[in-house]
Structures are given as C-alpha cells and as structure tokens.
C-alpha cells in the first residue's frame, strides 16, 4: 500500500500543477483522493499502465489537467472511455465548485465504471457515469461543451463516436502520442475539421488535438 507521502505530489509536481492551471487547495485534496483510489484499485483492475504508477501525478493528473487549461470556460464535459478517471475525474475535481458544471463519464467496463462511481463519491464530486458502449451514448447526449478521450481509440474512430456532439457545436479534445500525424492522415477523405495542436506540458512526444467544426466527407 502506498503511503500518504507517496499519494501527495512532490514540490516539483505541485509547481507544475499550479503552472498548468490555477486550482484550489480543495481541488488538490480531491486529486490526492483520486491517486489513492487508483493505487488501491490497481491491484485488482488494470486502470493505468503499471509502469506509469510512480509518475501518476505527471503522467495522469497533470496530463489530464491540461484539458481544463485549454478550455477554462467549459462547464459541460463528456469523457469517453474514462477508465481510471483520466481526464474525466480530474476535470470533475476542478469544476466541483463551479455552478452549472456537469461531467459525464462513459465507460463500458463494469469494474471500471464501479471504480469511477466509488471514487467520485470519495472525492466529493458529482459525475454521471454511463456504463455503456460509447456509440450508444453519444447519440443521446445534448448540450455538451467539450468531449474528451485519452488512450481510447484511433482518431478516425473517435471522430465517428464524437460526430453527433462536435457537429452540434462541441469541441473535441483528444490526447495523442507521437503517432498523431499518421492518425490525422487516416482521417483525410473521411473528415474535415478545424484543428489546434496543443503540445503537451508533460511530454515532448504527446499532444492534445482540439477539434471543432467537424464535417463528414462521405455524405
């Protein structure tokens, strides 16, 4: 079991958190609860890559926190394939005190959905967990500001899932690694969209793709 010292961020990690996005002390406490729950559940459910656990504050918390920094005014979020709660529960932790904020997490794996529900309660944040397949949920959702996904699916597939939302005015915000350029090429002829590339603050090999005005080319 990790000690409370390991569950807290180091000073270097704390400095990077505050450099990435302004957060309250209460939000930092919610992050610590999330980290503790990930350590606990990781023994029985593979929430994150085991090799990243010792870097959880950088690789998962801060990496997720970038979403809020990019879209600071967004209040209605949907996270696809939420898994261990990244970025969905991190976003929910930041928005916990914001009036009108709604964070919805989509996770078809029932064990991971149970983790999301239990952890959100321990964090003291309100989220809506959809224990369903992504394609059956996105058609039902309305009035979403930002739709996120991290380590979930290739970009062309994400755009298929998110099309009902982005086409209606939502913004897609997708974490991608070093192969993102090839994923963009896979979308040529299938989709047109406006793109802003946000280099990651935690890794030179990662980026966040901000996508809007999505148009299907096959219609």
Brief account:
By secondary structure, the chain is α/β, with parallel strands linked by helices. It has nine helices and seven strands, in the order H-H-H-H-E-H-E-H-E-H-E-H-E-H-E-E.
Overview of this structure, please?
- The protein has helices spanning 4-7, 11-20, 25-42, 56-70, 88-95, 110-123, 134-138, 155-166, 180-186, and strands at 76-80, 102-106, 128-130, 146-150, 171-176, 191-199, 207-216.
- The chain is an alpha/beta fold and 219 residues long.
- It has a single domain (4-216), classed as 3-Layer(aba) Sandwich (Rossmann fold).
- A seven-stranded mixed β-sheet has the order 3-2-1-4-5-7-6, sandwiched between helices.
- α8 links the parallel β4 (146-150) and β5 (171-176).
- The protein is globular.
- Residues 1-5 have low confidence and may be disordered.
Kindly list the characteristics that best describe this protein.
single chain, alpha/beta, Rossmann fold, seven-stranded mixed beta sheet, 219 residues, 9 helices, 42% helix
CATH topology: Rossmann fold
Assigned CATH architecture: 3-Layer(aba) Sandwich
Order of helices and strands: HHHHEHEHEHEHEHEE
Report the end-to-end length measured between terminal Cα atoms.
53 Å
Order of strands side by side in the largest beta sheet?
Answer: 3-2-1-4-5-7-6
Number of H/I helices: 9
Strand content: 15-25%
Describe the biggest sheet? 7 strands, mixed
Number of strands: 7
The 3D shape can be described as: globular
Taking all residues together, what is the mean pLDDT?
Answer: 93
Radius of gyration: 17 Å
